[in-house]
């Protein structure tokens, strides 16, 4: 006997069966097959990007394109584990390629050194899923609009110091399956007679239940109207991280980059100012985001990249394999508190 | 205004580069953890792992590539990390953390210890070493989509052993031998059969019908007659299974007929068993090949027999799920038995999960947990223990939207049998039937986590019962406790000098222990039998030693693990929460992940228990 699964289907090689064994035992062969047929675009290869790349490559997608136009600097090299020490000056995606490929030779890892803003619409259509990191709000909204209608799964994520987030738009109709235990029919009481001799149902039997779930666009998710009564009453349960994200996205748009440790004083001031502006525009109080946030959103904390990259990576796997309920539609992680919440913004 | 070095405040960044940390384990969590530590700025790291790399590790232990299979995990992990951070100062040990070289002085070298383990014995041991050295310990575990991190600090928090943990599930002998009702029972039986035929014979692993089954309830005259009859039929009692098999030359037809026909027919005569159960159906040798691959059991018997012969006189095989004929044999034998007992048969893939206690594992869960470990580590460096938390990673968010659930740490249990100032425990056993060896191996080592116990009797004379020095008290091993005057109410002082641990053991003599139960630790968490509908079972993600095939930790069970906590924004500690016993139990689970690596791949050390296969540690 050979230890492969359903070898007669000839859909999985012995090499794959051996290497993916422990994950096939978790999410099943069907899911693994779907992963194996998926092509993903990953934009941005800093701390978070490297984590997502690792997770997707290990999971066994068909192809992963690493897109980044930036060059390796000492700071960016120290933020992730794929870039070799002598790569300063090279393109970030290019420098990450070799180590990324070595993670799993069965995945086609490619590099694209263009700026994502310069890509035409149809560039994105070759992928089953797109993951955007370090992108501007406008670009993310644009790509999201392009892709979601074509059933291309869209993910966004960033890490700012101790904080991180992930957003997903899996389209209006995302289909998936969930494995549920089979209901054991019949009484458990023993009784005499023919019923008693009924074959016992294997308690480990399960059944696959089909489900559908709907996602709203990034634009809708970010442009929630906080002035109406319903929104106001939900404020208490709304994570402050949502507003922090809005502030950081605006900073990125206004300054053209993220807060830099080297310009801590200046950027801190700018952050506070943007916080005031953003919350005022939304008709909300600055108290929602107390000043202390400023100390903890610079650069990328490696462990926060690991946490957000792990959740984001797993959401990509779920979406591509169409197995298990996806988180909808934001995940916020606060590395100071150790709290990670899933919340839904923008749906009616 | 604060000065930043990257994302960190300067004081923190400085203390990172000077402190020394120990990582115990270089597997799923360990690889991710090492990467996070160096990227965060930790410079002085020591990592220890006794294992070597297997191809099934490569889906998540990303520091390893295919070309590294067979090499030391700790060593290769170090080399891979140095490639992206050459300035890191890493020391790798291909060794067991339970080796006495790693004494309290060794542990005192570090400001922090982080576990990335997959078995309870090592966790217990490191727990005690960190208590003895008074070093903070970050404990963690993963299984499937679930994970957990917690911080242990002597005197401030619970230690790893403050709360009793459910022990590995075992099945009663009569279920395995007479009345299996689930595939797992048949799989356990098949593993026992393997040992009886090819491996180390164990009196607790009988495969023949159990005439002492209380359910059978024969009257005495009847029982006597049957006992005589069984002596005639293939001599079940007097000759060991291995001897019998050898006497038949491991003839597959004879083996098959005994196990799947004659023994089954014998079971059928125990008619009380079948009044409320579907009776087993004996198999016929001529029909066997209709059962597909499982019918070719004779091939596997032949191969295993050859292996035995090759090894020489008095040889024994050790079951290894990664050894194809061993795995094939168990699959076939289990399925034949499932067929006999009218159960749906299982694929080799599924049997391997259950027989090998395989815990499914993926990269992302380990990545998240390892990230959380480092975040907790940063707090411990500042001695901000009141900021530290236990954090649970769930598969789906709880009703309060939390996917990651931080909970306040609990204070130490004043009655903890490990970290209390004068730890004590009470054990119920039969002083006339328990031998010293069992006290040492099954109670003090296996159950109570000692590695090298020294035991004296509190009899006013300080009689030495067990010495950790090899050979010194060997003569005592097979004597009964009562031979030393031990009786109800006797007290023993047990020391483990490596762990700097002294435990007072109170003994209660009892002649009324349950069948198959040799001893009971009073006040323990009761072993939970799985209820048919309750997700509870998922919480007890199987614990247990590979040797006794445990129920598999299938992801199905794990999926039900929603941590339903009624709480405010910040989780209070579990002891103050208003939760039902069930949900608080859920909260208390520790996640341990199993190692399913075969014993043969371990670096063998004398101090290791012989069957030191990694357990599936449940996130309990």
Helical stretch tally of chain B = 18
CATH superfamily of the largest domain in chain B: NAD(P)-binding Rossmann-like Domain
Number of strands of chain B: 16
SSE class of chain A: alpha/beta
Terminus-to-terminus distance of chain B: 44 Å
Number of helices of chain A: 12
Instruction: Indicate the overall shape of chain A.
Output: globular
CATH architecture of the largest domain in chain A: 3-Layer(aba) Sandwich
Pathway (chain A): Protein modification; protein sumoylation
Family (chain A): Belongs to the ubiquitin-activating E1 family.
Domain THIF-type NAD/FAD binding fold (chain A): 20-339
Keywords (chain A): Ligase, Nucleus, Ubl conjugation pathway
Q: What features would you describe in this structure?
A:
The complex is a heterodimer of chains A (348) and B (620). Chain A is α/β, with parallel strands linked by helices and 348 residues long. Chain A is 39% helix and 18% strand. In chain A, the strands form 2 sheets. Chain A has an 8-stranded mixed beta sheet, with helices on both faces. A two-stranded antiparallel sheet of chain A has the order 7-8. In chain A, a hairpin with a 4-residue loop joins strand 9 and strand 10. In chain A, helix 3 (47-59) packs parallel to helix 12 and helix 10 (240-255) packs across helix 11 (264-281). The model of chain A is unreliable at 1-9 and 187-201 (pLDDT under 50). Chain B has 620 residues and is α/β, with parallel strands linked by helices. Chain B folds into 3 domains: 10-166 and 360-407, Rossmann fold, CATH 3.40.50.720; 173-218 and 238-356, Ubiquitin activating enzymes (Uba3). Chain: B, domain 2 (Arc Repressor Mutant, subunit A, Orthogonal Bundle), CATH 1.10.10; 424-522, Ubiquitin-like 2 activating enzyme e1b. Chain:  B, domain 3 (Structural Genomics Hypothetical 15.5 Kd Protein In mrcA-pckA Intergenic Region, Chain A), CATH 3.10.290.20. Chain B is built from 18 helices and 16 strands. Chain B has helices spanning 10-18, 28-40, 73-84, 104-107, 120-133, 173-177, 183-198, 220-232, 241-247, 252-269, 297-311, 324-340, 348-355, 363-381, 436-447, 536-539, 555-559, 581-587; strands at residues 4-5, 8-9, 20-24, 44-48, 89-93, 112-115, 137-143, 146-152, 389-393, 402-408, 424-429, 453-457, 464-466, 491-496, 501-509, 519-521. In chain B, helix 12 (324-340) crosses helix 13 (348-355). Chain B starts with a strand and ends in a 33-residue tail after the last helix. The interface between A and B is large, with 88 and 85 residues.
């Amino acid at each position: 006997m050979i230890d492969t699964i359903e070898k007669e289907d000839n859909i999985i090689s012995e090499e794959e069966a051996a290497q993916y064994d422990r994950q096939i035992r978790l999410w099943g062969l069907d899911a693994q097959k779907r992963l194996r047929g998926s092509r993903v675009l990953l934009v941005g290869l800093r701390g978070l990007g490297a984590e997502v790349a690792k997770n997707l490559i290990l999971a066994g997608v068909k192809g992963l394109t690493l897109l980044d136009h930036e060059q390796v600097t000492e700071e960016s090299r120290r933020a992730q584990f794929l870039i070799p020490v002598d790569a300063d000056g090279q393109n970030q995606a290019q420098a990450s390629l070799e180590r990324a490929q070595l993670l799993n030779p069965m995945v086609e890892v490619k590099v694209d050194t263009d700026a994502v803003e310069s890509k035409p619409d149809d560039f994105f259509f070759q992928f089953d899923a797109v993951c955007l990191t370090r992108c501007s709000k406008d670009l993310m909204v644009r790509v999201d609009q392009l892709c979601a209608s074509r059933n291309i799964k869209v993910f966004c994520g960033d890490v700012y110091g101790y904080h991180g987030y992930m957003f997903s738009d899996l389209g209006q109709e995302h289909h998936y399956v969930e494995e549920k235990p089979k209901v054991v029919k019949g009484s458990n009481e023993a009784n005499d007679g023919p019923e008693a001799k009924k074959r016992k149902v294997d308690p480990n039997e399960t059944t696959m239940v089909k489900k559908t779930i709907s996602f709203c666009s990034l634009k809708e998710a970010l442009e929630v109207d906080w002035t109406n009564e319903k929104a106001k009453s939900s404020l208490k349960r709304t994570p402050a991280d949502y507003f922090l994200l809005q502030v950081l996205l605006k900073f990125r748009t206004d300054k053209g980059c993220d807060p830099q440790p080297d310009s801590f004083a200046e950027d801190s001031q700018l952050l506070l100012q943007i916080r005031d502006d953003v919350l005022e525009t939304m008709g909300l109080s600055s108290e929602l985001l107390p000043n202390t946030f400023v100390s903890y959103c610079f650069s990328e904390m490696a462990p926060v990249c690991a946490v957000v990259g792990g959740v984001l990576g797993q959401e990509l796997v779920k979406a591509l394999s169409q197995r298990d309920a996806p988180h909808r539609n934001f995940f916020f992680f606060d590395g100071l508190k150790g709290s990670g919440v899933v919340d839904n913004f923008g749906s009616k | 205004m604060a000065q930043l070095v990257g994302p960190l405040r300067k004081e923190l960044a400085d203390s990172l580069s000077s402190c020394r940390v120990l990582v115990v384990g270089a597997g799923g969590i360990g690889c991710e953890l090492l990467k996070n530590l160096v990227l965060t700025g930790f410079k002085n790291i020591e990592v220890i792992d006794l294992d070597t790399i297997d191809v099934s590790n490569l889906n998540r232990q990303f520091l390893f590539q295919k070309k590294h299979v067979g090499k030391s995990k700790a060593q290769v992990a170090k080399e891979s990390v140095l490639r992206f951070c050459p300035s890191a100062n890493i020391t790798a040990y291909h060794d067991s953390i339970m080796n006495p070289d790693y004494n309290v002085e060794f542990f005192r070298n570090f400001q922090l210890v982080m576990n990335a383990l997959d078995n309870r014995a090592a966790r217990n041991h490191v727990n005690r070493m960190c208590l003895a050295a008074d070093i903070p310990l970050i404990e963690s575990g993963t299984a499937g989509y679930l994970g957990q991190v917690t911080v242990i600090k002597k005197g401030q928090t619970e230690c790893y052993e403050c709360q009793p943990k459910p022990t590995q599930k075992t099945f009663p002998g009569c279920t395995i031998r007479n009345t299996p009702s689930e595939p797992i029972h048949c799989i356990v039986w098949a593993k026992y059969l393997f040992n009886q035929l090819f491996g180390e014979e164990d009196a607790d692993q009988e495969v023949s019908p159990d005439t002492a089954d209380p359910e059978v309830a024969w009257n005495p005259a009847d029982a006597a007659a049957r006992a005589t009859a069984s002596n005639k039929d293939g001599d079940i009692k007097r000759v060991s299974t291995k001897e019998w098999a050898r006497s038949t030359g491991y003839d597959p037809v004879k083996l098959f007929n005994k196990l799947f026909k004659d023994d089954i027919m014998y079971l059928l005569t125990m008619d009380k068993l079948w009044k409320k159960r579907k009776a087993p159906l004996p198999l016929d040798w001529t029909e066997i090949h209709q059962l597909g691959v499982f019918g070719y059991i004779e091939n596997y018997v032949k191969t295993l027999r050859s292996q035995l012969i090759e090894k020489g006189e008095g040889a024994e095989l050790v079951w290894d799920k990664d050894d194809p004929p061993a795995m094939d044999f168990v699959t076939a034998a289990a399925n034949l038995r499932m067929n006999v007992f009218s159960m749906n048969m299982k694929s080799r893939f599924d049997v391997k999960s259950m027989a090998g206690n395989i815990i499914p594992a993926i990269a992302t869960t380990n990545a998240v947990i390892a990230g959380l470990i480092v975040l907790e580590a940063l707090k411990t460096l500042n001695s901000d223990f009141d900021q530290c938390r236990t954090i649970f990673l769930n598969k789906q968010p709880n009703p309060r939207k939390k996917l990651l659930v931080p909970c306040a740490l609990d204070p130490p249990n004043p009655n903890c049998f490990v970290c209390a100032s004068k730890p004590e425990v009470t054990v119920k056993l039969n002083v006339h039937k328990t031998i010293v060896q069992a006290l040492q191996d099954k109670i003090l080592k296996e159950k109570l986590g000692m590695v090298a116990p020294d035991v004296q009797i509190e009899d006013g004379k300080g009689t030495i019962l067990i010495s950790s020095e090899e050979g010194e008290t060997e003569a005592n091993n097979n004597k009964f406790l009562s031979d030393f005057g031990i009786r109800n109410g006797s007290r023993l002082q047990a020391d483990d000098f490596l762990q700097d641990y002294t435990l007072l053991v109170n003994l209660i003599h009892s002649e009324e222990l349950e069948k198959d139960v040799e001893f009971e630790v009073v006040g323990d968490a009761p072993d939970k039998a799985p209820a048919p509908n309750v997700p509870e079972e998922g919480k007890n993600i199987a614990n247990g030693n590979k040797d006794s095939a445990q129920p598999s930790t299938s992801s199905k069970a794990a999926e039900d693990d929603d941590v339903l906590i009624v709480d405010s924004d910040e989780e209070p500690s579990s002891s103050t929460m208003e939760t039902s016993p069930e949900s608080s139990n859920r909260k208390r689970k520790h996640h341990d992940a199993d190692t399913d690596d075969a014993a043969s791949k371990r670096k063998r050390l004398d101090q290791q228990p012989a069957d030191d296969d990694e357990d599936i540690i449940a996130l309990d």
